[in-house]
Amino acid sequence: MKTRLSLFYLLLLPILFVSAVIGVCIGSTPIGWREVLHVLGLKFLPQGWLDPGSVTPADLVVVWLIRIPRVLVAAFVGAGLASSGVIMQALFRNPLAEPSLVGAGPGAVLGGVISFVAGWSVISVVSLPLAAMLGALLALALVYAMATRGGVTPVTTLLLAGVAAGSLLSALSSLLLSLNIVNWQMAQEIVFWMMGGLDARTWTHFWMCAPFVLMGLLAALLQARDLDLLQQGEETAASLGVDVESAKRMLTLTAAILTGASVAVAGLVGFVGLIVPHGVRLVLGPSNRALLPASALAGAAFLILCDLVARTIHHPAEIRLGIVTALSGGPIFIWLLMRRYRDVTVG
Amino acid sequence: MSVLELREASVSRGPRQILHQASLALGPGELVALVGPNGSGKSTLLRALAGLWPASPHTSVLLDGHPLHAVPRRDIARRIAFVSQDSTIDFAFSVEEIVSMGRYAHRGRFARESGRDREAVKLAMARCDIAHLASRSANTLSGGERQRVLIARSLAVEPEFILLDEPTANLDVAHSLEILDLCRDLAASGHVVVLATHDLNAVVRYASKVVLIHEGRIVSTGSRDEVLKPQALEQVFHVRAGSVSDSDGQPIYIFHRL
Amino acid sequence: MIAANMFLRPALYIVLVAVLAAAVERYASPPGGLQLPIASTGEGSAAIQTGSLAYPREAIDSDRMRIRIPRPAHRIVSQYWSIDEYLYSVVPPESIVAVSESAYSHDYGNVYLLAEKFHPPIATDPERVLKLDPDLIVVSSDGRADYTSLVRGTGVPVYRMQTTFHTLDQIEKTILLTGYITGADEAAQKEAARFRASIEQARAKARNQRFSPRILGLSGKHGYGSNTVFDDVLKTVGAINVAAENGIEGYIPVNFEQIALWNPDWIVAGADRGQVKQVLEQLSSDPAIAITKAAHNRHILVFETNVIVPMSPFTSRFVTMLADALYKAGS
Predict the structure, then answer these.
(1) Which one is the CATH code of C33-164: 3.80.10.10, 3.30.360.10, 2.40.128.110, 3.40.50.1980?
(2) What was the ipTM of the complex prediction?
(3) Which of A85, A125, A166, A341 has its CB 3.0 to 4.6 Å from that of C145, i.e. a possible disulfide?
C-alpha cells in the first residue's frame, strides 16, 4: 500500500506540475516558455538580477496578471471540489455522491445569481464570490434545519433534504434569471457563469478562493479518521466512540465551504467532485487520510487540463469550463458505472 | 467491578413502545444470553445498554450507578463494545484497518497509532483467528469471516462489556461454535458478554444467565433451567417445546408446531 | 440554535476576507498610477464629469473613479455594443482596435459595415486586448466587475461608461463625453450638433400638428414604458406613450389583452432583419390588436431592430423615421 501511494504521487506530482506550466505557457496569444520564466524571475528574484527590458510590458501583464492567477484558481477550485467530493462520498456512504448534494452548490449559484440581478457584481469583483459563499452556507443551514430532529440529523434525511433544498434553490435561480431575461446582457452573463468558467480571473479571485480551500482541506484531514468510521455506518461509528452529530456538522460545513469557495470563483463546474475521488479511490483504497490530499492534487491537475482544453480547442472562442468537465467526466463516469455493474454480476 | 444495568427502562420509537420497563443488571464474568422471538425487543435492549438510543427520561441505563447519557461518548465506547447484526461493509478497507478502528475510543481523532494500539489490534485478530486475513480487503470476505472481523474490532477496544446482536446468525456450525467458545473465554477472563439470539440450542449451553424477553417485557431472568421451562417457551415462541438430554446431560430442545 | 453558531463564524470570516480583498483591489495602485482615488464629487450613475481640455485630461467614470488620460487615443478598445456605436460615430474608424461581438451583428448593430471593412478583433479576451497595445479601453457600466478589474490592473486607462440611458439628452452628452475621452473633440461636437438637429427637426414637425397621437411601443411581448429612451423619443415627436400612461415603467412584458383595452392610435414594433413583413402580419392578425384603432387604420409601424434598439447617436435615425411616418403629408 505504501508503495502504491508513492507510485501514485510519483506520477501525479509531475503531471500537476507540467499541466500548470503548460497552462501558463499556452493561451490565446503566443508567449514562449522562456518569456514566462523571465516574468517569474522578475517577480520573485530580487531587483536587478534580471533585465526588465527582456520582456514586453504586455507579456508581463499577460503572464503575471492573467495566466498565472487563472491556472492557480483552476488548481484550487479543482482541489476544493475534489476534496468536497471525498467528504460527501464518505459521509453518504455512496461512491456516487457529489458536492452539491447538501444544497451548498445550488445555494452558491443562487447567491451568485442574486448578486448579478441586484447589480452588486457590477460594483466590485468580490461581490459575486462573497454572495456565492454566503449562499452556500445559508443553503447548508437551511438543509440542516430541515433535517434535524431532537439534535439528531440522520444521514438519509440530510441527503433528502439536501436534494430537495437543492431543487428549490435551483428553481429560484431559474426564476430570477427568467424575470431578468429582458436585460439580455446580464442574462447572458448569468447563464455563462452558471455553466462554469475561469475567464478574467484575477489575483483577487485567487485570494477569495485559495485560503478557504486550504482551510477546508486541512479541516477535512483533521477529521479523516471520523470519516473512515462514519463510512462504517453511523451506529457503528457511535459505538466506536465518534460524536456522530458533531462530526457530521463539521464535515458538512467543511464540504460547504470547499464547494462554496469553488463555485464562487468558477461557477458551476460539475463532475470533478464525482469522478476524481472515485478514480483516486480505485487506485489508493478508501482510507480518507490518503484519499483527501491525493484527490485534491488530482482534482487540481484535472481542472487545469480541462481549462486548457476549454481555452484552446475552439480558439479563439472559449468553451465554458463546466461543459468541458461534463464532456470529459461523463464518459469516465459511465465507464466507472459499467465497471461497477460488471463486478457485481461476475462476483 | 463494573456493573451495567437497566432500571425500569422504557424505549419508544414514535408511537410504538418497544421496551416496557425493562430491568436488568450485568456484572463481570457473566455470559448472558438474551433470547426471544423476532421483534421482541432484543436488539433494542442491547442498543439501550450500549447507550445508542438517544437519551430520554425513560431510558435509565446506569454504568456503575451513573446515568449513561451523562457519560461522554468516547468514554462509553472505551468500556462498552457493540457488534450489530447487520453490518455491511461497503468500502474496501483492509481487515487490519477495520480492526484498528476499534482503537478510536482510546486514540481519538488525532493521536498517532501507538505500540499499545498495534498490540491490541494484533491480539484481537489472533483471538478471532483472522490474523492471516490482515491485508485482505473486507469486501472479499465471506459472511463468517466478516463477522469475526467485527468481533475482533470490538475486542480491539479492550472493553469491559461486549454486546453482540445475533453473532452466529450468518455463521456455519464450526464458526458458530468458535465464536461461542471465544465468548466463554472472554467471560471467563472477566468481561461481561451479552448475546442476543434466537438460536436456543447453541447458545444456552454457554450462557451463565439467560434473559427471556417477550413483546418488550422481560419475562424472566435466571439460569437456563429456571428460564427455559416448556410453558414459558410455549408462551413466548408459540411452539411446543420438549427437550432431550445429550451425552453430557445437556438439554437439547426440540420444537413442534402448536 | 447550534446551527446558527456554527455558521456564523465561517460567514464572518468569509465577509472579512471579502472586505479585505475589495479594499486591496480598490486602493492598490496599479502600475503607472493611471487611476487616482475615488472622486469626492459625483452623484450616482448619471454624473459624468469632465475636466479641462488640456492634456493630461481627467474624467470621472460611472464607478466614480477619476481616470487620467495622458494623450489623445489612437488605439481604442470597446467592450459593449452601444460603445461601439458611439466610437464609430466620433473617432476615425482605424483608431478602433477592438470591438464587442455586436459590432458585427447585422440585426442589432449599426456599425457592421465599418467593422467588416476594418475588421478589428472582438474584445472579450483580455489577453488579446492587451496584446493590441491599446491606449484607452472603454467598458460598460453594466458589465461584470471581473473584466473591468482585470484590465484596470494592467495600467491602460480604462473608462467605465454609463450605458443605460433614459433620455435623448443623455445620449447627446455622451457623444460629447466620447469626444472628450478620446481626444476627438471636434468630431464629437459635429456629431452632437447633427444629432441635435435631427431631434429639433422632428420636434418642429410635431409642433405643427393639431393632436398628439397615442402610441404603443412593442418588442416581441415587451412594451416600452416610462423612463426609457423610447419614451423620450415619443415625447420628442409629440406623441403620448400609451404604456407609460397606464403605469408601465421601463421595458417589461405586457399583456396583449391590455392592449385591446388601451386602444392605441399607433403601434410601433421592432423586427429582425428580413422579418418586417412577418411581424406586421403577426401583429395585425393578433385578435387583441386587431380591434385597436391602430390596426383598423393600418397604423402599425414595424421598424428593423437596429433602428429601434440603439441608445447611441443612431437613435436619431429612429426619431427621424418615426416623425416622417407619423406626420407624412395627409396623415
Answers:
(1) 3.40.50.1980
(2) 0.85
(3) A125
